[in-house]
Amino acid sequence: MSRPRALSGFPEWLPAAQVVEQLVTDSLRATFELHGFAPLRTRAVEPVPVLLGKGETDKEIYLLHRLQADEGVAPGDGAALGLHFDLTVPLARYVLENAGHLAFPYRRYQVQAVWRGERPQEGRYREFVQADIDIVGDGSLPFHHEVEVALVAAEALSSLPLPPIRMRVNNRKVAEGFYLGLGVLDSGAVLRVMDKLDKIGPAQVTTLLVEDLGMSSAQADACVVFAGVHGQPGTGPGPVLDDVAALGVQHPLLTEGLDELARVVEAAEQAVPGVLVPDLSIARGLDYYTGTVFETHLVGHEGLGSICSGGRYDELARDGERSFPGVGISVGVTRLVGAVVGRNLMAADRSVPTAVLVAVVDEQQRRESDSVATALRRRGICTEVSPSDAKLGKQIRYADRRGIPFVWFPDPSGQDQVKDIRSGDQRPAERDTWTPPPADRAPTLHSTRPKESS
Amino acid sequence: MSRPRALSGFPEWLPAAQVVEQLVTDSLRATFELHGFAPLRTRAVEPVPVLLGKGETDKEIYLLHRLQADEGVAPGDGAALGLHFDLTVPLARYVLENAGHLAFPYRRYQVQAVWRGERPQEGRYREFVQADIDIVGDGSLPFHHEVEVALVAAEALSSLPLPPIRMRVNNRKVAEGFYLGLGVLDSGAVLRVMDKLDKIGPAQVTTLLVEDLGMSSAQADACVVFAGVHGQPGTGPGPVLDDVAALGVQHPLLTEGLDELARVVEAAEQAVPGVLVPDLSIARGLDYYTGTVFETHLVGHEGLGSICSGGRYDELARDGERSFPGVGISVGVTRLVGAVVGRNLMAADRSVPTAVLVAVVDEQQRRESDSVATALRRRGICTEVSPSDAKLGKQIRYADRRGIPFVWFPDPSGQDQVKDIRSGDQRPAERDTWTPPPADRAPTLHSTRPKESS
After folding, report:
1. A268: closest CA among A373, A380, A146?
2. CATH no. for A356-429
3. What are the residues facing A108 on neighbouring strands?
């Protein structure tokens, strides 16, 4: 094999970044499990009709075919297969397939790769890992799960040493209720125009609303002002409720949506202050979501796109009359890791799990070093034995290159010593009792941002 | 979406089995990290020439193409891409691609899905998860790593509540040295005949050795006897060494191979007694491996095939004059989980991480239940809040269906109670101090085999 090249859009990490990915997913998983989400792994492939079933035809799907397919099709082959482009479509299919065997509400987390044949650029990949949680009900799903999922997402991201994050939250009922309150019946048409606000600006949007949809200019102005309403970190839902009230539009659905939005914001303000802000411009494919929606940015790195998005969808899955409404979030693990590593925002303090390297004085005494390692591992201390009996300076460099904090020098007469190679501190140690400080037991993540000047 | 069907060869688990898979991979990973292996995730796709580079053309590879490829090929598209069929080829490619940035010997573990377009049957899947460890050297790799990897594999499998396992180990040098000692120069030709032993039997093998390869019948008989030499659990390498010596063949390579084999067996006998046996019939694609080779079966379930295989390969990767020899093992996670679940050999005591369900007395008091949950989670106790204020009996059934051991009854006046729903034991509890017994904190695996009658 000649020296291979990286494939654009299919990121892989060197060991230092790989540990960051591992610690990020471990941390997300720990939060998800703390909240009672159970693991799920679905197959990577789905029949193409399942992948296309939700109208997501803009997704670039990778289809599979077998290299040796001319040898005949194996039994069970039916529709063409493609790689999943998210973890929501497989979840919907899994729930429908196994509904009779699942206990509802079904709470699962899922950390897996997904594939999209998109044009690669920063933050956009062809293969990337997502970490999702969803709660799926059978027939109905109480609103409080929307609050819950937002809190879990905020808690999961706040547990990482990230730059400040901003979760912007909205409720699909707010905009629909507002347009209905204005007397507009086709709220979908208004939404499609309002979606262009960022691209074409308020003046052109106003023109479209008036000329194409027949709104009065007062109505159109109200829509533009409404779409700009958003809160500030730490102030709760009050200012947004006031701003909407000032527009003088009333409708029961608007009231319901604002009430739900306020409940999510208030609960988050209590649990993770300053993270979540109400923002009525958040749309996130409103055809799809039916209640709370949100997306999340790293403050100062908004160009990356959202690192955690989700919401409530009432039509996740349907089997005849039986429907399975859900609410979920998806953390873009690869996008997040690519950003924090690429922009040097976060790092791990070592690239290996190893806390102790046991030195080998000479190859004849490797067994002695092995038995030190066995004693340490028995007490859960991650330990390697030096690969060779090179000069001790070289063995210490082996540890140093990997960030292994301690080197152990075994002594058959029982005078073992352990050295903290960061401080140079070396002292006698008992192989059956010595333990590293808790912070050194496993690699940990830390922020690499310079402290902000105050 | 109408009710979907399972896809043959692409297994998915219901929650009870999914937890088993998760706990198995967590346990394997813990052992690997205890021995200083660092995580790696490689992309799922490789250029087809990389996949075919090792002559593994009998593997049924899945090729990818983009559904919307007619819209033009994105920049960076080159050779056709296929899904990897193992984790060794991607490792070799990753090492070559990043050799300048890796610290050698490079020790990594990797738990990922792989894909093969094979005909599905029990123990054979089209998508399955493997857990691999490998140690890769730069230019050379000391023999002691072969011992090490065998021990880690045995320790990793012995940490699981499996039926008894048998690791059968051999060394590629033993057979080659034996044939050279017999005076046969083309040991590859002998190996190809000997590989048919299981299929065609000793009489026909003897005929082929004599008629096709020109051996004397004494030589051919020696080969057949030699291939049948194997040890017994717990006896160490002695009997095998005696059996080979009795055949009266001598060669330096045979001596070296037997010495290496003995060292692996002795070390394993000390670390995990009774698990590893020498067996000269183990071949495992001898063209590929160059030293220690082994495979592992669940005793009584040999028909499943090997659940953990590996060995030493000196030509894992080569870049001009620079070679990267390695030694590794691969645990077939999906095969193992499918077997223990399908044959009811092992189970988890619950299907969710949750240790405590906090009851909701009525919806108005959900906030009280939420604050109990927050207090418990703050101390690392996995907790859910009841999805509804249904009758308490129904809330207890919610916990029972999932195996959640404790239900908490909050009381705003501070008289909280917690019930162990297995024993029915209910008592007062403080939300800021109560902890579940250690065994109930997280789901655990246990054997479901009936005790053997003695």
Report:
1. A146
2. 3.40.50.800
3. A38, A134
Whether the per-residue pLDDT at B58 is higher than 70: the answer is no
The ipTM assigned to this model is 0.93
Min distance B191 CA to chain A CA atoms (Å): 26
* Cβ atoms of A253 and A176 closer than 8 Å: yes
Topology of the domain covering A164-299: BirA Bifunctional Protein; domain 2 (3.30.930)
The single residue listed with the structure tokens 């730490």 is A234
Residue B73's pLDDT is what? 42
pLDDT at res. A76: 46
Beta pairing, strands A383-385 & B45-47: unpaired
Looking at the DSSP bridge assignments, the partners of residue B347 are B446
Chain A closest-CA separation from residue B247 CA (Å): 32
Q: Is A125 left (phi over 0), alpha (psi -120 to 50) or beta?
A: beta
Q: Buried b vs exposed e over A103-116: b needs ≥16 C-beta within 10 Å?
A: bbbbbbbbbbbbbb
Superfamily, domain B356-446:
Anticodon-binding domain (3.40.50.800)
Has residue A91 got a pLDDT over 50? Answer: yes
Per the CB < 8 A criterion, the answer to whether A350 and A443 are in contact is yes
| A284 pLDDT tier (thresholds 50, 70, 90) | low
* Cβ-Cβ contacts under 8 Å, B39 against chain A: 18-19, 21-22
Q: How many angstroms separate the CA atoms of A343 and A449, rounded?
A: 10
Please report, rounded to a whole number, the percentage of residues in chain B having pLDDT higher than 70: 94
Q: What's the whole-number average pLDDT of chain A?
A: 91
Cβ–Cβ of A45/B10 closer than 8 Å?
Answer: yes
Q: What is d(CA A321, CA A328) in angstroms, rounded to the nearest whole number?
A: 22
pLDDT the model gives residue A15: 97
Please tell me the distance from the alpha carbon of residue B301 to that of residue B307, in angstroms, as a whole number. Answer: 10
* Separation of alpha carbons B21 and B27, rounded Å: 10
Could you state, in order of their start, the residue ranges of all structural domains in chain B?
Answer: 7-163+300-348, 170-257+281-291, 356-446
Q: Are strands A346-348 and A445-447 parallel, antiparallel or unpaired?
A: antiparallel
- State the average pLDDT over residues B130-140: 97
What pLDDT score was predicted for residue A450?
Answer: 64
Residue B450 has pLDDT above 80, yes or no: no
pLDDT at A58 over 70: no
Structure tokens at A44: 């990577």
Whether the pTM exceeds 0.80: the reply is yes
- Between the alpha carbon of residue A230 and those of residues A128, A241, A254, A345, the distances in Å are 31, 10, 16, 28
Distance from CA of B10 to the nearest CA of A (A): 6
pLDDT of residue B74: 44
Q: Return the percentage of chain A with pLDDT > 70, whole number.
A: 94
Domain A12-162+305-346: what homologous superfamily?
Answer: Bira Bifunctional Protein; Domain 2 (3.30.930.10)
Instruction: Quickly tell me which residue has 């004085």 as its tokens.
Output: A361
What length is written for chain A? Answer: 454
Residue B201: which H helix or E strand, with range?
helix B197-211
CB proximity A3 to B under 8 Å:
yes
A94/A82 Cα distance (integer angstroms)? 16
DSSP B248-261: T---HHHHHHHHHH
Matching CATH number, B7-163+300-348, of 3.90.640.10, 3.30.930.10, 3.30.2270.10, 1.10.150.80? 3.30.930.10
Report the residue from A42, A94, A384 with minimal CB separation from B36.
Answer: A384
DSSP H or E run through B177: helix B172-181
